[in-house]
Specification:
There is one protein chain. The chain is mainly α. It has a single domain, classed as Orthogonal Bundle (MetI-like fold), CATH 1.10.3720.10. The chain is 72% helix and 0% strand. It contains ten helices and no strands. α9 runs antiparallel to α10. Belongs to the binding-protein-dependent transport system permease family. HisMQ subfamily. One of its GO terms (cellular component) is ATP-binding cassette (ABC) transporter complex.
Length: 241
């Protein structure tokens, strides 16, 4: 799986750098399945590490400023719907950028979706951290490990194994929530289908279009679910009787 992701990332970098004799398309021209995959993959890749950092920051009792900052971010983002985050990223984000710096609509949507997913991921990871017995922390302290080594070598591996179902569930919900970007004018997979069925040449075929869209979402979501089950069995996160 990791090798596949690295190979995919390498192909994307090669394409974006040299184009492979193809016309390089700016991100504001992305649409359909391509846009849905870009939004979901980037948001998933950003939300997991950022969520871990936020979860650790929320438990940093020795650093009250960092703890309050993380708590404020998590609670503020979780208190509003994703649509509000998307509108703020679309219209408010340019106001905080220096003059002359501007991002296209896709990048703004990526920022909004990643922030939203990170807040929920932080709570999932925090649940895993709270499930670790206190003895594990004391054992790490007795070995003389500092905070970063303790988390990297002992606490986080156990916590992340416990919350694999919650992490994958968040990823599945994030993949489906990318359809909300149509509200800010981005032509995602679902909006492309809606636009096509309004064409006079495709009248009466809306059932086929929506069935195909549902099939695509099912394949990706079911694939993530099965991979989650595979990881659980491989890492023995369940308690066998």
């Amino acid at each position: 799986m990791v090798g596949f992701l690295l190979a995919y990332a390498a192909l994307v970098i090669i394409y974006m750098s040299w184009g492979m004799d193809l016309t390089v398309q700016p991100t504001n021209t992305f649409g359909g399945l391509m846009l849905t995959l870009v939004l979901s993959v980037v948001a998933i890749g950003v939300s997991l590490p950022l969520g871990i950092v936020l979860a650790l920051g929320r438990r940093a009792h020795t650093m009250p400023a960092v703890q309050m900052l993380c708590i404020g971010f998590i609670e503020l983002v979780r208190a509003v719907p994703l649509i509000t985050i998307l509108f703020m990223a679309q219209f408010m984000l340019p106001l905080f950028l220096p003059e002359g710096v501007n991002f296209d609509n896709v990048v703004r949507a990526l920022v909004g979706v990643s922030m939203f997913a990170s807040a929920y991921m932080a709570e999932v990871v925090r649940g895993g951290l709270q499930a670790i017995p206190k003895g594990q922390f004391e054992a790490a302290d007795s070995l003389g490990l500092n905070f970063f080594l303790k988390m990297r070598l002992i606490i986080l591996p156990q916590a992340l194994k416990i919350v694999i179902p919650g992490i994958v569930s968040t990823f599945i919900g994030l993949f489906k929530d990318t359809s909300l970007v149509s509200i800010i004018g981005l032509m995602d997979l679902l909006l492309i289908a809606k636009s096509s069925v309004t064409d006079s040449k495709w009248l009466g075929l809306e059932h086929e279009a929506y069935f195909f869209i549902a099939l695509i979402y099912f394949v990706f979501c079911f694939g993530m679910s099965r991979y989650s089950i595979y990881l659980e069995r491989k890492l023995h996160t369940g308690h066998k009787r």
